[in-house]
Amino acid sequence: xxxxxxxxxxxxxxxxxxxxxxxxxxxxxxxxxxxxxxxxxxxxxxxxxxxxxxxxxxxxxxxxxxxxxxxxxxxxxxxxxxxxxxxxxxxxxxxxxxxxxxxxxxxxxxxxxxxxxxxxxxxxxxxxxxxxxxxxxxxxxxxxxxxxxxxxxxxxxxxxxxxxxxxxxxxxxxxxxxxxxxxxxxxxxxxxxxxxxxxxxxxxxxxxxxxxxxxxxxxxxxxxxxxxxxxxxxxxxxxxxxxxxxxxxxxxxxxxxxxxxxxxxxxxxxxxxxxxxxxxxxxxxxxxxxxxxxxxxxxxxxxxxxxx
Amino acid sequence: xxxxxxxxxxxxxxxxxxxxxxxxxxxxxxxxxxxxxxxxxxxxxxxxxxxxxxxxxxxxxxxxxxxxxxxxxxxxxxxxxxxxxxxxxxxxxxxxxxxxxxxxxxxxxxxxxxxxxxxxxxxxxxxxxxxxxxxxxxxxxxxxxxxxxxxxxxxxxxxxxxxxxxxxxxxxxxxxxxxxxxxxxxxxxxxxxxxxxxxxxxxxxxxxxxxxxxxxxxxxxxxxxxxxxxxxxxxxxxxxxxxxxxxxxxxxxxxxxxxxxxxxxxxxxxxxxxxxxxxxxxxxxxxxxxxxxxxxxxxxxxxxxxxxxxxxxxxxxxxxx
Lengths: 308, 321
Description:
The complex is a heterodimer.
Chain A: H1 3-33, H2 41-57, H3 62-85, H4 91-110, E1 114-116, H5 140-158, H6 162-172, H7 174-179, H8 184-210, E2 212-214, H9 221-236, H10 243-266, H11 274-307
Chain B: H1 2-22, E1 32-38, H2 43-60, E2 64-70, H3 75-87, E3 92-96, H4 98-107, E4 113-118, H5 121-125, E5 138-142, H6 147-157, E6 163-169, H7 175-188, E7 192-198, H8 204-214, E8 217-220, H9 224-227, H10 230-240, E9 244-246, H11 249-255, E10 258-261, H12 264-279, E11 291-292, E12 297-300, H13 302-307, E13 317-318
Parallel strand pairs in B: 1-2, 1-3, 3-4, 4-5, 5-11, 6-7, 6-8, 8-9, 9-10, 12-13
Antiparallel strand pairs in B: 10-12
Helix pairs in contact in B: 2-12, 3-4, 6-7, 8-10, 10-11
C-alpha cells in the first residue's frame, strides 16, 4: 500500500465526486429549499444516463442527448409533483412510486439491463480515461467543474427572481406563502421538476464517465446526495452564507464523500461493509447539528467554567 | 477538550498513513500486482475469482499480489475501484462480470484487462464486427453456456414438447442475449418459444406460475435473479409437472431437471493462465482471442427427475454424485 497510489487516484475521485456533486445540488433543491425528501432521484439517476447513452449510440449529438436526458428527468419530477400535489399522496410516497415506475421505464428505454458506450468510438464529454495525462481543456475535472459553476450561476439567478423567491418561500413556510397569494402546489411541482432535471443531467454525465448505463446505477443515489448535502453543510456552514456558496459547498461535499470512499478502498477495507459505512457517515453527519445543540452547548459552557 | 481530541485524531491518522507508506516495497524478483474487481458476492463469480488466483499462484508462487475488491453490486463503485487500480498502476486488472469490465474499459487503454464471467464481449463493450478479439487492451473468458447444445439437450429429453417457455429477469445484463439465442436454436428444432420475464425477485412466483401454465418445458438461462430464487421456481414447477432445463449447475441443483454445465472455477483458471501469458511472456492482450469454457458436462438433478418420472440417458451425471 503506498501513499503515491492514493495520491494518483485523487483526480478520479474528484471527478466522480463533482459529477455526484451536480446530482447533490438537485437533491439540495428538494431537501433544503423545498423541504421535501424526494426519493424519485434513485430512478432519475438511471433515466438520465439511459436516455443519453441510447441517444448517443443512435448517432445524435452530445448536446441534444444531454438536453433530452435533462428533459426526461424533468418529466419524472413532474410525475412526482402531480402525485404529490394534484393527487394528495404524501411527498415521500410519491417519490417512491415514481422511482418504482421508473425502474420499468428505464428498462424499456435501454431495451435491456445494461448498455455500454465505447469511449474509443464516440467523442464523449467526460470519461474516466480523461482525468490524468490529457490536455487540461479535455480534463473531465475541469469540464464537470465548469458545468457545476454554470449550473450554480443559473440557479443563483433563478432563485433571485420572483418565481424563485416564491419557491423558496413555499419551502420556508407553506401556509404563510399561500396567505401571500403564492400558488404553493405549482411551486412544489416546479421545484421537483428542476431538481430531477439536474439529477438526470448528472446521471448522463456519470454514464459517460463510467462507460455504461446500468439499471442499478441509481440505487442508493439519494443517500449519496443527502450525504453530500449534509457533509457540505456541516463543513462549510460557518464560512459560506451566500446561497451560491451554499450550493458550491454541496458540490464539495460530494467530492469529500468520494475522496473518503477512495481512501477506504485504498486502505483495503472489507467492501462488504461499504454500505453500512455510507449509512453511518450520513447518520453521524445528520445527527451532528442536533447533538451539538442538545448536548454540547451546555456541557462545553460548564466545562469552560470548571476549567477556569 | 474537543480541540485536543481533534489534534490527537489527526496525529494518529498521520502516523497510520506514514506506517502504510513504509511497507509494501518488494525487493528481488518482480512481484506482479493484479487488481481484481468483482461485481458482487455470488457463488459463480466467487468461483471464477478463486480459479483465477489459483492459476496465477501456481505459476508465480509468491511473486503475485492480489488486490481483491468487491463493488457490492453497485456499478458506480466499480468505477471507483478501477480508478484506484489505474492510479496504483497495477500490472493487470481482472474484471469479474460485465459492469467492472465496462468500468475498466472506460478507465484505461494501457493496463491489460482480462474479463471473466462475461457472456458476450461484443455487446458488453459496444464492438461492431466481432472477430474474436477486442482489438484493444482487453481480452478474457466468456461464460456463454453452450446454448445450441442446450437446445439439443432439451429436444433429446423432451422430444414431444411443443411450447417452451424461457423464464428470466429482464433487468439482468446477460439473460436477454441468451434468451434470444436459445429462442432461435429452439425454433430451428420446431418448438414454439415464449418469453416470460420478471423485473425483480418479488414478481418471480407470479410470472413463473404463468410460465408453468403455458409451457411444456421451461428453460432458464444463467440468470442471477433466477439463481437466487430457485426454491420458488421449484415450488411452482414441480407441482405443475413442468420440467425445467437450466443454463448452469447451480440453478439446476435448485430447480432444474438437467443442464449442460460449465465450471466457473475452470473459467477463472483459464483466465489466470491468460494473465500469466500477458504478465510473464509479454503476450499482446489486444490480439488474444476471447476463450470459452474448456469443458461442459451433461448433468441431471436426481431428486426432481424422480419426482417427475423422467428417465435420463446413461451419459448424464447426477449432480452431487
